[in-house]
Amino acid sequence: MSNINTKKSFLIFFIIVLITNAIFLGIWFKFGVQSSIKEGYTSLEKEIKEDILSNIEKNFIGEVDAIPLFDKIARKYNLLLIVKDDSNNIIYNNTRDTSDNEYLMPFIVTINNEKYLLSVGKMNEFNVVSITKKFMIFEIVFTLVIIMLALIVSNEILLKPIEDTIKDIKNYKFGIKPKKRKVLTEIGYIQNEFVDLTENLEKEHEEQNRIISAISHDIKTPLTSIIGYSDLLTNKKLNVTERKKLEEKIYMKAQDMKAIVSDFDDYLLSNKDRTYTFTEINIRDYLNKLKLEYKDDLKDKGIRFEVLDRSRARTFKIDIGKINRVFANLVSNSIRHIDKNGKITITCKSDKEYIYFEFKDNGSGVSDENISKIFDPLFTTNKARKINGLGLSISKEIIEMHGGKIYAISKDNEKKPGEKEGLTINFSIKQNIN
Question: Which of 42, 53, 58, 103 is nearest to 77 (CA)?
Fold first, then answer.
């Protein structure tokens, strides 16, 4: 499909108008001006034959000085006159503009056995005023036709698409979804961009409803427990041990609610704070800092932590704070799903364009049907491994803003006897992102 922008459309229309005007001017000249000239010639020829020539022949009887006579006749009949003798010498000429010569009619006159070639024309014979009036009428009619055509074209190219887009915008307020149209001009692009915008808004609205529903559900569960435990504390006589257990349960449920709200706050902040500051840093130095940051903490939790540098690249550009957040999200996610003898391994590799990270744990795996969903906001499942929160969704956005991709691999269906399932998350970062 060839796309024509509005500027080109009007340029083409302008060229068509010029060509059309030239064609109509040619037609007007052919059937208007030339017809008037022809009428003038016919009238002049008749007058010259019936009146002027006979008068000239009468005045040439006897010896007459030719030049004063021709001058007298030219003045009397308001003629343009060129007279040549039989030797083709001009003996009289009262024309000033050589362009007038093409309108002069030749006649041969015999006087006293002497032949003279007369080129005769009538001054103002072609009625300049009449021709000008015809031209003005023609141009007015032509201009009106062009204006009408311009209005029709502009209406089809500009006004109608704009009106349709405005109509779609108004209808969208009442829940009527707009549709894409055939793209011919920039207005068509605006319409289709508006359709894409509405589709994205619909998706975001659905996502927001899903997130709100998920948060509401996740908060209701611990909140119901807190209300029940609080009711027991208030209405039942409990010993110190029973009371302490209920208080601990209330505290744990409150912590769960806090974690859910905290995750939601993180998600809102990640959507709001989309400004990235990329800094070039040494890969080895960054990996060493990463190892120092988590090794001792994970060791206290009984989890071994390894960072393997197999990258050939020396530096890469990242927003340090946001990439730190990715690793923090991945580590916290693994901690929640690792039992005893846990292990987390981060391996760094590279090629000419990207830095690749493999984040692997030996916790519970994720089923194949859910592996592609774990980066969705607030995704959760009760099968095999429960993934919830917004950390992985935030991490996905950060990686994509670094020009990379992120995906997960589970050993749920490939584990060997006695081997824990584990989850591997691979992501890439463009080395020299601008």
Answer: 53
Instruction: Give the strand pairing for 303-309 and 342-350.
Output: parallel
Number of folded domains in the chain? 3
Task: Using the 3D structure, point to which of 103, 129, 155 is the last residue of a domain.
Answer: 129
Mean pLDDT of 153-168: 72
CA 65/CA 118 separation, integer angstroms: 16
Residues 42 and 21 in one domain: yes
User: Would 141 be classed as within a structural domain?
Assistant: no
The torsion defined by the Cα of 202, 207, 209 and 214, in degrees rounded to 10, comes to 170
Mean pLDDT of 280-298: 90
Asked whether residue 281 falls in the same domain as residue 213, the answer is: no
Distance CA 331, CA 129 (A): 95
Containing structural domain, residue 229: 203-271
Mean pLDDT score across all residues of the chain: 76
Q: Does one domain contain both 220 and 283?
A: no
Identify which of 408, 400, 401, 312 has the alpha carbon closest to the alpha carbon of residue 358: 408
Mean pLDDT computed over 97-112: 64
Note whether 263 and 314 are same-domain residues.
no
Residue 8, CA atoms < 13 Å, CB-side half-sphere: 7
- What's the token pair of residue 45? 């020829």
Query: In this structure, are residues 305 and 299 in contact, taking their beta carbons and an 8 Å threshold?
Result: yes
Q: Which two tokens stand for residue 30?
A: 């052919």
Tell me the pLDDT tens digit for each residue of 313-332.
999 999 988 898 889 888 88
DSSP H helices in 182-278 = 186-235, 240-272
Same domain, 333 and 241: no
Of 241, 256, 271, the last residue of a domain is 271
Is 282 found in the same domain as 258? Answer: no
Nearest Cα residue to 256 out of 225, 231, 229? 225
